[in-house]
Amino acid sequence: MYTYVDSKVYILLVYILSRGVSMKAGKMLFSFLLVGVLAVAVVASGCIGGETTTQTTTLEQITLKVIGPWSGAELDAFNEVIKEFEAEHPDIKIEYKTYRAEDLSTILPLQFESGDTPADLIFMWGWFIADMGTKGHVMELGQIINPNEYVPGILDTVTVDGKIYGAPFTAAAKPGFWYRKSFFEEHGLTPPETWDEFVKLLEQIKQIPGIKAPIVSGDSVGWPLSDVTEHFIMTFGGAELQQKLINGEVKWQDPQVRSIFEERLVPLLEAGYFSDPIEWTSAVELWWKGEYALYFMGTWLTGMVDDPTDLGLISLPGVKAMVLAPDYFMVPKYTSHPDEALELAKFIATEGQRIHVGTSSGKLATWKEVTMDDYWEPMKDVAKVVANVESAPDLDDSVGGEWQKAFWDQLKLLWVQPDRLDEVLKTLDEKFPKE
């Protein structure tokens, strides 16, 4: 077969003969040239026979599936974490799907029992992860995270007998009463530093024309009122009292608990400092318009207002602990890519947190290596407050079940009829789950 190399040799031979070189010298010169041309041809072609081939290295890419609870703006914030991971790991592609935890609680046990999993990394309730871990369905993560680098107590929920089955991502916090800085400046108000100053502030706000009540009470879903109540419990009883109430070690009619209601919360309700319960998202709009001055809500509020830089925060003076609610995740044993899944898990639990708190997610880091400079500007003040208090679990979520619903209902009753405190506390004790 005629090739490119053949043509080169032919041209060289013609050139030699045309120059009148002697046959003997020509043959010698031709031989040298032929060897040189063939050598170049072999190197260039990479194969015998002159067939040209190109040797390239193709990066094999795998896909990891991730299941989480986010959509909309929350998903946009999480996607910033995913983008950075993919940039650092071009051989890994992330595929995300949104699922409600309630749905996963029925889907996952069945799939795990059959040795299958819908994703390689799954965000889920901490207690659920611990349960699946003890049943052998979840990989241990102690090899990829250092417990000393995390907020104290944050890993307790996903740790059983010293084995860490889940890892924390960033957390929402329930830090106190939000206010608009512009509202306070307009009316000459300043954040309080003592309990007496807090009560005085509420009275000042109550006298402002157009104010319906100093504090708007979000409701309709139950938990906003319970969040307020728990803030009072942890301010005057600390994380220890919160945990004992969760465990049933302290009754609601206990003198210490009763005194918090009688001396702190109920007097504010009786004085009209709290509004009647209002659907919580509608309450955001009314508060932002200036019909109310303060609103107790979690850090996700930062993503629900027009100008988060106008937000200020007031925790009850002397607060000792706050609810810090992290998003936990697990790596099922049935993943097809265990090494890559663990690499993703390590990233999300560490550097991914640094990226996430820099977005408008309204979340706080549980990894202590994140610095204040890493935070989105509207969250820096919140991060400073939370850094100085103890973390505590959410009371009603921890107890759960029918008692949680009873807790919400009884607080609605207390809000509109604070004189029925004895009845409320008695009902909470009667309905608390018995071991």
From TrEMBL:
<dbReference type="InterPro" id="IPR050490">
    <property type="entry name" value="Bact_solute-bd_prot1"/>
</dbReference>
<dbReference type="InterPro" id="IPR006059">
    <property type="entry name" value="SBP"/>
</dbReference>
<comment type="similarity">
    <text>Belongs to the bacterial solute-binding protein 1 family.</text>
</comment>
<protein>
    <submittedName>
        <fullName>Trehalose/maltose ABC transporter, trehalose/maltose binding protein</fullName>
    </submittedName>
</protein>
<dbReference type="Pfam" id="PF01547">
    <property type="entry name" value="SBP_bac_1"/>
</dbReference>
<keyword id="KW-0813">Transport</keyword>
